[in-house]
Amino acid sequence: MKIAITARGKDLDAQVSDKPGTASHLLVMDMLSKELQWFEGSGKSGPGAGLLFISMAVNENCDAFLTGWLSPGSERQLKARGITVVTGMTGKVAQALEEFERAYASGSAAPPEESFGTSPLPNIKALINACRQALTQIGSMLPVIAGVVFLIGILTTFIPQRILSDFFSGNTLQGIFKSALAGSLFTGNPANSYIIGKELLDQGLGIGVVTALICAWVMVGIVQLPAESAALGKGFAIVRNFLCFILSMVIALIMVGVM
Amino acid sequence: MIQSNSPTKKILKFLYSFKGLFLLLVAAFYLALWWIMPEKTAVAFQTSIDFFYRLLLPFFLVFCFMVALNLFSTPPQFEKIIQNGSGVKQSFFAAIAGILSTGPIFAWYPILKDLRDRGAAPSLMAVFLVNRAVKPALVPMMISLFGWSFVLLLTLLTVAASFCVGFCINRLFP
């Protein structure tokens, strides 16, 4: 039986992380051979890092996943693959593994996860966790959005509208192309593109230019190209991004025609 | 000595991250402009604050949407469905999965690779990736900024575009 546990270190003395997103490593212990493997995370915290550890546990064909807290969606995904999920784990990895092994080996009537502090009121707990997760997600977006909003204040005050209009050339194909190119180079939360797009619209730029920027921002990823190539193949990544670049301009032209 | 989980350490870690450095850069920019043109900089600052007030309601609606999505996220059946073939049904579910997916795209690449290795068609990967452009949680914000008609049309065109990309990928990478 293989058990995966999220931790803030790569040995049995490491502390169990309170959630996958804050872990630095995933430890996988084979309970039969007592062999311990460790996998390092991306180095960043957040829901993306957590998903990485979950996919690692799946790839390693683990039978159980131990952590402090896990989102309801991720828990459902693991259970659907037949992986026992145990939350509420704290303390050192060695201690957590021992507790799990004892509870599992004792053959208690209740499934292991129920003996480790999951709430008797799952709906309320799930709602609180969902609110906490939403606050974390919004909180992670806020610093960059704040920076973008303050930069827009400078843009609207210091740069004459005429300069922006001349650069993006109104709703012409050239302006849409330039906007799509700018959107392709940017990455990050799409909310930033909406804010920038709205400001450009208020500055008198056409709906086509704004649409091309917004579409290319999320559909095309020059910055992510190496990672996409590594995961899905170079040919796939290049073709998909090229098609999305063209389609972002097509969408912009359709929006100009309709709106 | 600063403890590993102390507030000071957390603040320092944030300031050294991309987000922290970006904010510091913007603040430095404002200070520099304030030094050169204080009155115009004050106007720029006030414009930004006014914009923030306009974003309060959309962000509250975004919070509500995110809570709902976190409670009812993508069912695991999607994975099973998109592992078999690349027909209309599979494309539809890949589109739904892309729309409901959250988090940075980098986190999804390992999962997509895993699905690809298990036999999911490349066209479905493409449909998933393009539909990540549709963010249900941010729809209230978009509507407040651009209006219903813009958002509705853009969403429909984006989903249609995803199927076009999927079709082309299917032809090029059978």
Question: Secondary-structure map with pairings?
Answer:
The complex is a heterodimer of chains A (259) and B (174).
Chain A: E1 2-7, E2 25-30, E3 36-40, H1 47-59, E4 64-66, H2 72-80, E5 84-86, H3 93-105, H4 122-158, H5 161-168, H6 173-185, H7 190-202, H8 207-219, H9 225-232, H10 234-258
Parallel strand pairs in A: 1-4, 4-5
Antiparallel strand pairs in A: 1-2, 2-3
Chain B: H1 7-16, H2 18-36, H3 38-71, H4 77-82, H5 88-100, H6 105-117, H7 122-131, H8 139-146, H9 148-172
Structure description:
The complex is a heterodimer of chains A (259) and B (174). Chain A is an alpha/beta fold and 259 residues long. Chain A has ten helices and five strands. Chain A folds into two domains: 114 residues, Nucleotidyltransferase, domain 5 (2-Layer Sandwich); 116 residues, no CATH class. A five-stranded mixed beta sheet of chain A has the order 3-2-1-4-5, sandwiched between helices. In chain A, α6 crosses α10. About 6% of the residues of chain A have low confidence. Chain B is mainly α and 174 residues long. Chain B has two domains: 49 residues, no CATH class; 104 residues, no CATH class. In chain B, α5 runs parallel beside α7. The model of chain B has no long low-confidence stretch (mean pLDDT 80).
Question: Which oligomeric form is depicted?
Answer: heterodimer
Whole-number mean pLDDT of chain A:
80
N-to-C CA distance of chain B: 59 Å
Structure classification of chain A = alpha/beta
The total of beta strands of chain B comes to 0
* Class inferred from helices and paired strands of chain B: mainly alpha
Low-confidence stretches of chain A: 107-122
Main sheet: strand order of chain A: 3-2-1-4-5
Radius of gyration of chain A: 24 Å
Helix content of chain A: 55-70%
Overall form of chain B: elongated
How many strands of chain A?
A: 5
Q: What is the overall pLDDT average of chain B?
A: 80
- What would the principal axes of the Cα set say about the shape of chain A? elongated
Number of helices of chain A: 10
Element-by-element helix/strand order of chain B: HHHHHHHHH
Task: Describe the sheet with the most strands of chain B.
Answer: none
